[in-house]
Design a protein that fits this description.
Elements: E1 5-13, E2 16-21, E3 24-32, H1 35-44, E4 49-54, H2 55-60, H3 66-75, E5 79-83, H4 89-96, E6 102-105, H5 108-111, H6 113-123, E7 127-134, E8 137-140, E9 145-150, H7 151-160, E10 165-170, H8 182-192, E11 195-199, H9 205-212, E12 219-224, H10 226-229, H11 235-241
Parallel strand pairs: 1-4, 1-12, 4-5, 5-6, 6-7, 7-10, 10-11, 11-12
Antiparallel strand pairs: 1-2, 2-3, 7-8, 8-9
Helix pairs in contact: 1-3, 7-8
């Protein structure tokens, strides 16, 4: 069985490493001045993947922090996945042609499904679908808008179009250190029959163990952000903990 992958997260705003609470741009904490320095630290602690979010890009609807993304992808021996502000074919090509392993499409899955389907047909597993949900409904535009589309329905539709990897965020859990929404993550994995990476709420080693225990239904990894920055545990402890079930 494949390994349960941990993805330390670096959220970028104004070129710095930050965390927001439930996606609220007015509730920001700065944790570092250099995304690259943070990525180096995570790589030294054993990360095989790093999850990057361009928060400025998500809000602006275009790439903003891409220079930091390329610096990390080109200088470290890690896989990089990036989301935020990726709205065009040129954006996708820009990242994939410059060392990024996986591009995350989120808002466009609702606002421009034809584009997303084209990218899935062209790039397959190099495209991840980011499904961010509030009360079960998909949120878009940097979580500023909530659609009338249910997370599982969107997942099923895009799985038919070739999506192999989903990243699921329960917005109400994000940045709250209150535990991930394991049930919703499992439901999405079962509905799609594909890999689902959970994001938001991981606060303790026990959360990682609960998620890793659902690997058999398709829960393939967890993105960890605030818990690492507030030193709830180290990345090394997390790697150890995921196997202690």
């Amino acid at each position: 069985m494949s390994e349960f992958i941990l993805y330390p997260a670096i959220d970028m705003r104004n070129g710095k490493c930050v965390r927001l609470v439930q996606g609220d741009y007015d509730q920001e904490t700065i944790y570092g001045d250099s995304p690259l320095d943070m990525a180096v630290r995570f790589a030294k602690e054993g990360a095989k993947w790093i999850h990057l979010v361009d928060l400025d890009g998500a809000k602006a609807g275009k790439r903003v922090n891409h220079e930091h993304v390329l610096a990390i992808a080109s200088s470290l021996d890690v896989n990089v996945q990036i989301g935020g502000g990726i709205r065009t074919e040129e954006d996708v090509e820009f990242y994939l042609n410059n060392g990024v392993s996986r591009v995350i499409l989120g808002s466009s899955a609702v606002s421009n499904p034809a584009f997303v389907k084209k990218m899935l047909a062209q790039y397959h597993e190099k495209i991840a679908i980011g499904i961010d949900a509030r009360n079960g409904f998909v949120s878009t535009e940097g979580w500023l808008e909530t659609s009338k589309v249910k997370a599982e329905e969107l997942g099923k539709e895009l799985a038919k179009e070739g999506a192999e990897v989903f990243i699921f965020t329960d917005i109400q859990m994000d940045g709250m250190l209150s535990g991930p929404n394991v049930d919703s993550t499992v439901r999405l994995a079962e509905a799609t029959g594909k890999q689902v990476i959970t994001s938001g709420g991981v606060s303790a080693l026990a959360d990682i163990q609960k998620l890793s225990a659902q690997k058999h239904v398709g829960v393939s990894g967890a993105i960890i952000g605030k818990a690492l920055y507030t030193k709830q545990f180290t990345l090394a402890e997390a790697f150890e903990g995921r196997n202690t079930i």
